[in-house]
Amino acid sequence: MKKLTTSLLVVVLSSSVAVVNAQQKKNDTATQTKEIEGVVVTALGIKREKKALGYASQEIKGDLISDAGQTNAVSALSGNVAGVQVTAPSSMGGSTRITMRGISSVTGENRPLIVVDGVPLDNSNVNNEDTQRGAGGRDYGDATFDINPDDIESVTVLKGGPAAALYGYRAGNGAIIYTTKSAKKGRTEVQFNTGVAFESIYIRPKLQNLYGGGSELALQTQKIDGVTYNLPEFGTDESWGPKYDPNLYYLGWDSFDPEFPDQYMKLKQWVAPRKDVDDFFRVGTTYTNNISVAKSFENTNVRLSYTNTKINGIVPNSEIKKDNFSLNVSSKLSDNLKADALFNYVHTAGFNRPEQGYGDNSVAQKFYQWGQRQLDFAELQRYKLPSNGMQRSWNRTSWDDGTPNFSDNPYWTIYENTSDDNRHRFYGNAGLTYNFSKKVYVSGKVYGDTYSQTITSRVAIGSAAQSQYNVRKSNNSEFNYEGRLHYNDNFGDFSLNTFAGFNIMDRKWDIMEGKSVGGLIIPNLYNLSNSREVPKASNASYHLGVRSLFASVSLGYKDFLFLEATGRNDWFSMLNEDQFYPSVTGSFVFSKVLKADWISFGKVRAGWSRIAGGSDPFIRGTFATIGNSFWGSPTYSMPVIKGEPNLKPEVKTTKEIGLEMNFFKNRIGFDVTYYDVKSTDLILPLPIDPATGFGNRRINAGEMTNKGIEAMVNITPIRTDDFSWDFTWNFTRNRNKLVELQGTLENYILTNAPFRVQLAAQVGYSYGTILGTDFVYDANGNKVVNENGVYKASEIKSLGSILPDYNMGFRNSFKYKSFGLSFLIDVQQGGKYFSTTHMWGMNNGMLEETALGGNREAGMILPGVKENGAPNDILLDAPTWGKSYYNTVDAQNVFDASYIKLRDITLSYDLPKSFIGNSIQGIRVSAFARNLFAWNLAFKGVDPENTSYGSGNIQGLEGGSLPSTRMYGVNVNFKF
Predict the structure, then answer these.
(1) What region, left, alpha or beta, does residue 374 occupy, with left being phi > 0 and alpha being psi -120 to 50 degrees?
(2) Which of 271, 343, 519, 948 is the most buried (most CB within 10 A)?
(3) How high is the pLDDT of residue 614?
(4) Using CA atoms, how far apart are residues 626 and 629, in angstroms rounded to an integer?
(5) Among its keywords, does the record have Signal (predicted)?
């Protein structure tokens, strides 16, 4: 694939140069130069000339996000920005993992700072560790889901320390700055945007359709009322049973309930179901309606916006409703004084987000890992008894005992074992700017972000698992108080831009949880007071503050040579030492010196920064753990990890150099950056002698490096009065290495998958190493089997890292008169993930491969050699072969995470003025599709992006994923 993509790029570049030479226009220069040397939003929301920047940044327009029907403003960046890796699962409202320039911390935060109109937006990962490691749970998504794509004007990505150093410790991993739309002076505009999208299942495991449920090749028999019947093994949730035979009749799981006379004691044919797993899922829908009013008065600009979004997921009885309200006001109070304010209110309500991973309520686990393949989903829909509301499960304990043995009826799961989540959020800013003169001004602002979230979940009485009711309430607030003094001036050939300021950050959050104990008493009453035993309650509160001073000086010479230095000092409430973050950047616009006609723009830049990371509150202390009371007395225990009073922040040092060039009147351009990042003083829990009373002690130790290249190529092969073609290529290649932990410590285990493998930080390897058993090979590279004929397993070793070798995206945009066409191809090469679905799907005879082409009876001889070197000739029966995927070689279930995706395609048309008349300024109709096709998948049954269930550091452990989806939709935009 490397050769293919390289050749493709060479062909495009070569052909584009030829076209460009033949089709240059005089008016191209002014337009493109304005884009290249224009104004962009940088750290702290300060607008700067792009040519003066000595660090890597990239801007994309909001239309690119909204036109493609995106509902998540973060996942929309996938494939569009160099240096950025986005993992965007297609689950309803699921978490989006985004990193820039690799992983820098073993246990700390590795995601960039999200900023909306100057507001540092909380993006907490609320999913617990069990959910993230694939052990079962609901993915409640990220808080950045609250950003409204319809309100976005532009997105600026500050990719590293030199670009984001002014934000201090929070932006050590870069920053993503969203700027929302505002009213334009002298204009009044009303817009209404309405759209609908349809979502259907796409990538999912292929299931065998030749054998039914059970563990034996023959049905059981049972005499009932003097008649002998064939019965499947109701209590077994595997599919190693008999081959389908229309002449074989049996009594099914639903044949023993007199309340259903059409099913009671009725025989069925032993055949494949008419309605199978795919028929369980529905076509998901997303409805979006936005109205905005922007009005410019004499000295005041106001924009109001309201967006309603409703998502119905592919799993029945699941939905998300979201309401976004935005008010943006700016007013010139006097000749020198300006006020501005931005207010956002968001209500996000999710109902019954599907559980994923290896959990009791995960339908994906029941469909693709454990089950019986003869089950007809049309019959499963009658999932409970009308008389008492109790469950009818296919997985009966026995023919005369309908109690679920292991698995619930999937329709019981989605209609009875539900969840709710609600988030109310307010965020925005208010500030004043006073101009003392044209050269000096002062600004002061308050930024606020606060929300409350309530999550409840329930397991009904009559489920296979113990009934329960859980509730979690959390509150989060952060306020930043900021003031800056700016001075800008020119001295002959020199220009000066400088400012200094302060920031006071205050953040609080608290969590309260309640859980039933011992099950519930009264059916359908979901209240903690309905707990059989005394319910368990817990709460925690956190508070941290940071006080900061910062300054920046930028010096320019003759508009082609620029030098900038910034500094920020943070004083932490959670760490003893304050930290100073310096950065130095420089840029040389050599195109202004060379004066070559064929060079439209050329700039070389370099930057250096040092940023120290903060940490969690109370991390220095050691606090007792309060347990359940014993006979009325409280119990206390020491925590697992001992705090360290002298703990220091992690330190991240970045060096980067870049080159930007545009040629042939800006028809071809590129921007390439090389960076070298070193992280030291990593905060780690070091294992210590249990005799101390602790399992670990937090220390500063270790070193991690990231080195890489990020590149962007822009080409305009054709531009005429009626037609244009623009091509953009983004490329990211990062090499991560954990250089050292502490002393002889080689591994730090991040977590365990539900069963077999571990996710670790391993010295000498890339972060996120999957540890497990591999095949054993002889000297000739043959796999070795043991005396039983199954593959021999090696010792525990590295099976690869979750981090990819490279990511890239190709976007083509075409414009013909009033028609527009744009599509993005998103590519990931390398990385690994572990699939629990593959492991159990093979173990239990569910996946297509386990049917052995319809000849299970012949068994299987594994390719390989015996330990004595002789060719393997040991015949395995089909179940023994399938079950070897669980208890022998883990590498059989570890797959390459590469993919090539047609990420999105958009076709738009602007209706002609002659058609719409003068009462409407414009109407644009857009049709779009997302995740339309995927190629180059190592395991065709799982989308590599659907192997994670949170946005934190735990990735690549697939525990039981729902199918990935395709989406098709249409938007209509009216401008009045």
Answers:
(1) alpha
(2) 948
(3) 65
(4) 9
(5) yes
Q: What share of the chain is helix, strand, coil (3-state, %, to 5)?
A: 15, 50, 35
Which tokens sit at 711?
Answer: 């590149």
- In contact, 240 and 882? CB cutoff 8 Å: yes
Residue 560 has pLDDT above 80, yes or no: yes
Span 313-330, mean pLDDT?
96
The burial class, CB within 10 Å (0-12 / 13-18 / 19+), for 17 is middle
Mean pLDDT along residues 747-762: 93
How far apart are alpha carbons 304 and 300 in whole angstroms? Answer: 13
How far, CA to CA in Å, does 556 sit from each of 495, 496, 560, 606? 5, 6, 7, 15
Tokens of 259: 């309340």
Q: Contact, 949 vs 913, CB < 8 A? A: no
Whether residue 559 contacts residue 603, with contact meaning beta carbons closer than 8 Å, is answered with: no
Taking 80 as the threshold, does the pLDDT of residue 737 lie above it? yes
Q: CA 418, CA 420: separation in Å to the nearest integer?
A: 7
Relative to beta strand 188-201, strand 220-224 is unpaired
> Is 37's pLDDT higher than 70?
no
Tell me the sheet residues that pair with 355. 138
The 10 Å Cβ neighbour count of residue 79 is 23
CB atoms within 10 A of CB 811: 21
Residue 894 has φ and ψ, to the nearest 5°, of -105, 130
Q: Token digits for 372? A: 């019986």
Helices 836-843 and 878-887: crossing angle, nearest 10°?
150
Q: Look at residue 595 and tell me whether its pLDDT is greater than 90.
A: no
Long-range contacts (CB closer than 8 Å, 24 or more residues apart) made by 259-263: 259/385, 259/386, 259/387, 260/382, 263/379, 263/382
- In residues, how long is the chain? 976
How far is residue 344 from each of residues 450, 506, 917, measured CA to CA in Å?
Answer: 11, 20, 35
pLDDT digits (tens, 9 = 90+) for 189-229: 999 999 999 999 999 999 999 999 999 999 999 999 999 99
Buried b vs exposed e over 558-589: b needs ≥16 C-beta within 10 Å?
eebbbbbbbbbebebebbeeebebebbbbbbb
Pairing of strands 113-116, 175-180: parallel
Please report which confidence band the pLDDT of residue 386 belongs to, taking 50, 70 and 90 as the band edges: very high
Nearest to 168 by CA among 676, 674, 703, 652: 652
Residue 1 has pLDDT above 60, yes or no: no
The answer to whether the predicted template modeling score (pTM) of the entire model surpasses 0.90 is yes
8 A C-beta contact, residue 94 and residue 126: no
Range list of β-strands (E), 460-560? 468-491, 494-520, 531-557
Per the CB < 8 A criterion, the answer to whether 520 and 468 are in contact is: yes
Collapsed DSSP state (helix, strand, coil) of residue 271: coil
Domains of the chain: 37-202+306-356+426-536+546-767+802-831+897-975 (2.40.170.20)
Could you give the angle at the alpha carbon of 34 between the alpha carbons of 671 and 922, nearest 5°?
Answer: 110
Share of the chain above pLDDT 70, in %: 96
What is the distance between the alpha carbons of residues 161 and 910, in angstroms, rounded to a whole number?
A: 42
For 586-634, what is the HEC assignment?
EEECCHHHHCCCCEEEEEEEEEEEEEECCCCCCCCCCCCEEEEEECCEE
Phi-psi region of 361 (alpha: psi -120 to 50; beta: other; left: phi over 0): alpha
Which residues have C-beta within 8 Å of that of residue 696, sequence separation ≥ 6? Answer: 640, 641, 642, 685, 686, 687, 688
Q: What is the DSSP string of 949-975?
A: SSSSS--SEESSPPPPEEEEEEEEEEE
Pairing assessment for the beta strands 188-201 and 965-975 based on DSSP bridges: antiparallel
Position 872 scores a pLDDT of: 97
Bridge-partner residues for 340, per DSSP?
A: 330, 431
pLDDT at 596 exceeding the cut of 90: no
Name the token pair of 598. Answer: 């064929």
Amino acid code (one letter) for 281: F
